[in-house]
Amino acid sequence: MTERIFLSSPDVGDAERRALVDAFDGGWVAPVGPELDGFEADIAGVTGWPGAVALSSGTGALHLALLVCGVQPGDEVLVSTFTFAATANAVTYAGATPVFIDSDRDTWNMSPQLLADELAARAADGRLPAAVVVVDLYGQCADYDEIVPLCAGYGVPVIEDAAESLLATYKGRPAGTLGDCGIFSFNGNKIMTTSGGGAFVSPDAAVADRVRYLATQARQPAVHYEHTDIGFNYRLSNLLAAMGRAQLTRLPAMSARRLQINQHYRTVLGGVDGLEFMPAAPWGDDGEPGGWNGWLTCVTFDDPVVRDAVQEALAAADIESRPLWKPMHLQPVFASAPARVDGTSERLFDHGLCLPSGSVLTDAQVERVATIALDEITSTKR
């Protein structure tokens, strides 16, 4: 019996086990300790920004990012519609309303043109948003040279939701550092993991200190428990931070493996009529494609019937695949939320599929996935 192939399994082993045991033996079994401090320093080293706070989830990081950017109850926040629900949920945690902006066809990320249209309309009505949250989809950055100056012209802060894009780059700059602040996720299916966790990053260490304070129940430096603000229980544990430090040392190799897996799929499926891979944005050197971290290999099919047939064939072989994100403006929970859309994300949802991409996959497993997909495409088109 063949082993089940998952979409994006955690890639953990002896290094992570040793780090956890060492942290446990050190006695810091709490959301404080030397590994937590070290992990934050490591994250700062990856981004080049001095402010880094390790937190219990990317969602929590996004919630606090919204708060330190000044989002208040009753505000509106422009958000990528083509994303996981956590992006929009965090806006509601701050008491604000998400306003969804559709994708462009070149990167699948937030459309700068639709964003410009929405900001102009809101400026004319005197109802500018409190912030814009831009998602770097599937490990590829949005077009920040268009988005950031546009938002700055209206005095609107940009929060980069880099939950999926750690180690990605945009024209040589690291993901997470392309807006006013950024967040990462270390959930189990991400390019690296702390089992569950996330991080907030900022170019301003004082802003990071404010996030750290809010994430620790907003405790004042008093012998007794003293509170002047509402805080949250969002700090990452020292044990999981130790795991994160071990993962960071392996992150370049894990990203390289995912890119290699993507290339394997392209070798087998790249010439198939009616199938296209996620566009490679020109964020590399001299405008060449580049900067993607390889998190998930995504494809679209001209015919959604073929997409469904491929997914069913993979499922029958005990292989996990998944449609692309269902846009937030189509989710029942956000049915009443405002949106500026043009059908791009809806088509991607109807036609797209994520293929198994975890760095733990063997060449034989990747070949099996690609072969089943190719055989099903061929038979469905007959």
How would you describe this protein?
This protein has 382 residues and is an alpha/beta fold. It folds into two domains: 14-248, 3-Layer(aba) Sandwich (Aspartate Aminotransferase, domain 2), CATH 3.40.640.10; 250-381, Aspartate Aminotransferase, domain 1. It is built from eleven helices and 14 strands. Strands 1-9-8-5-4-2-3-13 form an eight-stranded mixed β-sheet, with helices on both faces. A four-stranded antiparallel β-sheet has the order 10-11-14-12. Strand 6 (169-170) and strand 7 form a beta hairpin. It is globular, with a radius of gyration of 21 Å. The two termini are 30 Å apart. The model has no long low-confidence stretch (mean pLDDT 97).
Give a short overview.
By secondary structure, the protein is an alpha/beta fold. It contains 11 helices and 14 strands.
- The outline comes out as globular
Order of helices and strands: HHEHEHEHEHEEEEEHHEEHEEHEH
What is the CA–CA distance across the termini?
Answer: 30 Å
CATH architecture of the largest domain: 3-Layer(aba) Sandwich
Tell me the number of helical segments per DSSP (H or I, 4 or more residues long).
11
CATH topology of the largest domain: Aspartate Aminotransferase, domain 2
Low-confidence stretches: none
What is the CATH class of the largest domain?
Answer: Alpha Beta
The percent range for strand residues is 5-15%
Count the E strands.
Answer: 14
List the helices and strands and how they pair.
Elements: H1 14-25, H2 34-47, E1 51-55, H3 58-68, E2 76-80, H4 85-93, E3 97-101, H5 112-125, E4 131-135, H6 144-153, E5 158-161, E6 169-170, E7 173-174, E8 181-185, E9 198-202, H7 205-215, H8 238-269, E10 275-277, E11 297-301, H9 304-316, E12 322-323, E13 339-340, H10 344-351, E14 352-355, H11 363-381
Parallel strand pairs: 2-3, 2-4, 3-13, 4-5, 5-8
Antiparallel strand pairs: 1-9, 6-7, 8-9, 10-11, 11-14, 12-14
Helix pairs in contact: 1-8, 2-8, 3-4, 3-7, 5-6, 8-11, 9-11
